[in-house]
Amino acid sequence: xxxxxxxxxxxxxxxxxxxxxxxxxxxxxxxxxxxxxxxxxxxxxxxxxxxxxxxxxxxxxxxxxxxxxxxxxxxxxxxxxxxxxxxxxxxxxxxxxxxxxxxxxxxxxxxxxxxxxxxxxxxxxxxxxxxxxxxxxxxxxxxxxxxxxxxxxxxxxxxxxxxxxxxxxxxxxxxxxxxxxxxxxxxxxxxxxxxxxxxxxxxxxxx
Length: 207
Known about the structure:
Strand order of the largest sheet: 3-2-1-4-5
CATH superfamily: Ribonuclease H-like superfamily/Ribonuclease H
């Protein structure tokens, strides 16, 4: 389905912004090749910070879990090696990418992923009119089941990966795209939903 691999990323964090001091507590990265998940990297992360009570209530990740997890200096380099130069995706991708960049820079490193595509933006463009594009509501509308607990990195990344696979299946059914260049996803994301059908029909015209 997809011509190039895509890595779906999800972080759990202590807050909304690394600029405000928030750090990562858990990561999941799932590699999609074709139309299936073929590999995964999952770990809790010890950044040496306090886990707020509301984060524990939301995610189930406790201070003890983080204190006993591998150090960020071990996890992030392994994560960057796992991602490599593949395209990166996430649901609300700018959130996860800013944490990836911030944590990498703390260690004097820099992510090397080829490009970034947001499954939330793609869903808005390709499935307009849904009542909500939050991951739980979107997956339910698309008939995708949650396996595991929401607001845990692996469960959220897995559902997001299946959303991206569903998007590929939609493009194949609706537009006859057998092999999808992942760079096309970034171009779709940059359009308004109303312009997407015309854009895709133009892309499929013989040159």
